[in-house]
Each structure stands twice: as structure tokens, then as C-alpha cells.
Amino acid sequence: MDDQNKNLILATALSFLVILVWFVLFPPEEPVVDPNAPEVSETTNVPAVDATPLATTDATAPAGGETAVAEAARIKVETEALSGTISLAGGRIDDLKLTQYKETIEPDSPQVTLLHPEGTPGGYFSLFGWAPGGALDFADVPGPSTAWRQVGEGDLTPETPVTLEWSNGKGLTFQRTIAVDADNMFTVTQTVRNASGAEVRLAPYAEVVREGEPSDLKGFFIIHEGAIQQTGGELNELSYKDLRNLDSDDVWGPSTEVTSVAQNGWVGFTDHYWMTTIIPAQNESFKSVLRYEPRTDRYKTIARRDAMTVPAGASASVETRFFAGAKEWEQLRTYEDQGVYRFVDAIDWGWFFFLTKPIFRLLHALNGFIGNMGWSIIVLTLIIKGILFPLAYRSYVSMAKMKELQPEMEKIKEKAGDDRQKLQQEMMALYKKEKVNPASGCLPILMQIPIFFSLYKVIFVTIELRHAAWFGPFQDLSAPDPTSIMNLFGLLPFAGPEPGTLMATIFLGILPLLLGISMWLQQKLNPAPTDPTQAMVFAWMPWVFMFMLGSFASGLVVYWIANNTITFTQQYLIMRSQGYKPDVLGNITSSFRRKKPESK
């Protein structure tokens, strides 16, 4: 087996190894809930912590809290990106649809629902409030089911904020003004006016509550789903399993983590494409809290401000932003430019962020110019191959020279016999004399591995690829190829097997088949290896890749086909320029000839 083939087999083995490790599935564990535990309707447990401890909040909410929320009056929310309602019970933002996104590519598909009221399937909502301190108790501050009244009338729109008000009957009046921009950012201003005749101490908080794990949890290693926390100097990502296994370091009890953030922080939950995030003023300190409550199977992300003292006759206000929407790169970048620290990093760029970020930005720019994500991926492939061309050129020139040296290498092998040390020494001397690097043949393949993963990451995690159409049946490049030989690759008027099923794996679509053929043609630039084992490995490799990548996002398969086609063209032209004329047709026909058995 010559060194060129050894290098190619080594590169192939490494490719298989990395792909299999990278894309292995890690099924999430189901949350363990004690069936004998009493039901608790309390929504928020938010103690403030400072030099003078405030009251802890382990009390339950008023009985029938969920019923009160369900029956409470609501204020309509309407922007270009959002529609929904705010409940006057607790002043919760708990009912939001993303009007620009549908659940599937079908025309009659419902819009994506992001937030759900407490007690409904997939309960997911935000709360804002005050924790009592000093002489105050929980009856003196608004709670999760407090009946607020709207000051004035009207819906919440970008042009018309709404104001809620509640008085405790003891001289404290609380107001909550909620504004929203044209996209997905709420601004919640909480104000307390103290006419009680004595100073009071209390601490503002904001939290996002999630009842159980999301039903559409992907569970892929490649994408983070769960809590996301920016502490000003570090981005922390905790899965739902991580939240269940937190060590308590707070008075709240089990499964709690509290991080002090000096400035530039935010905290929330991130899904595959969607996110909810609490964003305190970026120049203010707060406690960033992650929590899991096993009794109620609730996950919480909380921003707790330090306690403040409000003198008699004075007032105090605190402003918090709340993002609820899709993780669109341009929108996150706009909010980052407006002061939200490293908000673009809410997109899971992965370990190869130094590649995924520029690859996405280039792909995004190409799509803005071309207007079609499929053709943009192909143009991106051309650009990447152009950047790597100098390396590929040296590699293919070296491979061509290795072909020219084949007769001399065979003579050295015959001369050395079983003396492997002598064989190695004479081979190295030949390489040095002819200025050939046998390892350069695998460099282009190895270079493709991080690029392949980075592009897969971009296609899988960014919402810009979700439901992105190419042409014909390829209306979602983030999904597997929808065609199949069973429906003549989309020509017959019925759908192929459901993606991810055994039938879809067996009856592949047109893109995986083109991938296998393109890899097979690449092999035919060179004659089949004489070694039977090596020849068998090479013969099976394209078809193994074809089935292995058949269930991947079709956008990634488009990239791989384009990459193979460009690589074939480059290698063919470079080999011919070096005097070596690949006999592609001859190599194809020879692979179908049956080898005659040797006579005994």
C-alpha cells in the first residue's frame, strides 16, 4: 500500500471518527418528580440578599392562583413580530405568538406559540415584582396572582405602552409600565410610591418560569437547549438536566445556583430557535439565579436586584428589558449595538465559533444578494474552495508527482523485501530527492472536517436556515431531503417516508444519492488499489457516507455535493497540468470487471 493511499485512508478514518463522535445523540433524562409531593401553586420565590436580610419567600401564593390567572382580564399585545395578551393577574407576560414564524412549511400551519399561561400544557411565562424586607411582608407587595388594574385603556403596541397599578392599602402604591418595540423587546418599568409615613425596604426582581421540559426538546449534542446566562465575563449554558443537578448555595433550597453579576449580564431560556431573556440595566449589578423546583417540576431563571430603601414620601423605579422571540442574527446584533452585552452569542456558535461566525455572516450576505439560500450555499462552497485552493494545488501536485514516482517506489519495495527499516529509509530519501511530501495528500480532506462541522452548525442552529427554500421539493434546507425513490424523487404526488424513520434511511432521496455518486467519481480519478482490503474499503466508502449523511440537513448535503464536484474538477485539471492524465472512464469500467481467479 503506497503512502498516498495510506494518507487517504487515514483521513477517511479520522473523518468517520469525528463525525460519529460529534453527532452522537444524548437523550435527555426525564425530570424526576415525587408523585407523593404536595401540589404547590406558588410561582415566585425571590428573596433579596443584602446586609440586612429580607424576608425569605417560601410562602405559597393565594389558593386558586391558577384559576385567578385563567379568569383574569387581559391586555392585548400587537407588534409586527408578536401577538398575544398580558394577564392582569400578576401582570404576567404569558401569552405570545411569533407572527412571522409558522410551525411547519405548510400554508395553513399555525404560528409558533412561544409563551403559555401557567397551568396550561407547556406553561412558560415571565413575572416581575418586589420582594419584601424590613417590616414588610408578602401581603404588602404585589405577588404572582395580584389583581392589577389598568390605568386608562388600550392595547399594548409599539406606540402605546400600558400602565398597571396596585395599592396595598397601607400607603404603598405600585405601578408597572410595560412598553414594547416593533420587534421582540419589552421594557418593564416598576415603580413604588411610599406614602406610608415610614421608610420601607424591598427588592425588585424579574423571572422566567418554565413548567417542565419543553415537549419539542431536540436533545442533540450540537445544540444547547436550557438556561443561558451572561455574567459579564462568561457565557454559561446549562441543560435542563444540569439545572436539576445544581448544588444549592442559597436559602431557597435544592437545585439553585446564584451568581453575582457586576454589570453586562442577562439570563433566560433558549430553545433551538427561540429565546426568552431577562436583561437588567447593563450598568447595574444583580444576582443571576438558576433554579429547579422538583415539587412542581418548574425551571426558573431570575434576575434579583439589591434591596433598596424608599424613604417616606419618596418613590423608586427600576427598569428591566425582556426579550421574547426568535434568535435572528440581525435582530440580536441590533440589540447588542443598543447595549445588550454580547447578545449575538445567544446563538450557539459552538467550539468552532471562529469559523461558524464568519461562515454564517458570509452565507447571510450571499443570501441577501442572491435571495436563495440553496444557491447561496453553492456560492459559499465556491468561495471556500477558492480560499483553500493554494493548499489544494500543492496537495494535488504532490499527488501527481507521487504517481510519477510509482515505478521507482515499486523497485524500492522489491529491493528491500521484508526489511521495513530499509524500505522506509529509501522511501524517505526518494521523497527528499524529488521534493515530495507524502502527507500533503490528506491535508485538504483534514481541512474540510472543521469547515464541514461549522457549516453543519450554521445550518442546524441558525433560524435563517429554518424553512429556507431552494427549488422544487426542497423547501426547507434545515430538514432532510424530502424526496425518495418511492415517489420518484418528488415526481409522484405523494410524500416520501417520514424523515428519521428506517424507511427514509433505506429509500434515500436524490441529494444523498448524488452525494454518493460524486464521492465515487472522485475515487475514479485514480486506478483502484491493488490491495484487495484497501480496494474494498474504497469501494464501500462513498455508499457508507451516502447513507450516513442521508438524514442530515439537505443544505449540508448540497454543500457536500458542491464540494465534491469542485474538488473533482480541481484535481482533474491540476493532474493534467502536471502531465498526469487521469483515465476516469477506464477506471470506472475496470471497477466493474470481474477479476479472473488465479490458476493453481
Automatic annotation (TrEMBL):
GO biological process, one term: protein transport
GO MF entries: membrane insertase activity
Cleaved signal peptide residues: none
Keyword NADP: no
Broad class of the protein's primary localization: membrane
Organism superkingdom: Bacteria
One GO cellular component term noted in the UniProt record for this chain: plasma membrane
The Membrane insertase YidC/Oxa/ALB C-terminal domain, residue ranges: 373-576
Keywords, in A-Z order: Cell membrane, Chaperone, Membrane, Protein transport, Transmembrane, Transmembrane helix, Transport
Membrane topology category: Multi-pass membrane protein
Domain Membrane insertase YidC N-terminal: 74-361
Compartments it resides in: Cell inner membrane; Cell membrane
Keyword Membrane set for record: yes
Regions that span the bilayer: 7-26, 373-393, 501-520, 540-562
Subunit annotation: Interacts with the Sec translocase complex via SecD. Specifically interacts with transmembrane segments of nascent integral membrane proteins during membrane integration.
Family according to the record: Belongs to the OXA1/ALB3/YidC family. Type 1 subfamily.
Function description: Required for the insertion and/or proper folding and/or complex formation of integral membrane proteins into the membrane. Involved in integration of membrane proteins that insert both dependently and independently of the Sec translocase complex, as well as at least some lipoproteins. Aids folding of multispanning membrane proteins.
Protein name as annotated: Membrane protein insertase YidC
Organism, scientific name: Pseudoruegeria aquimaris
Gene this protein is translated from: yidC
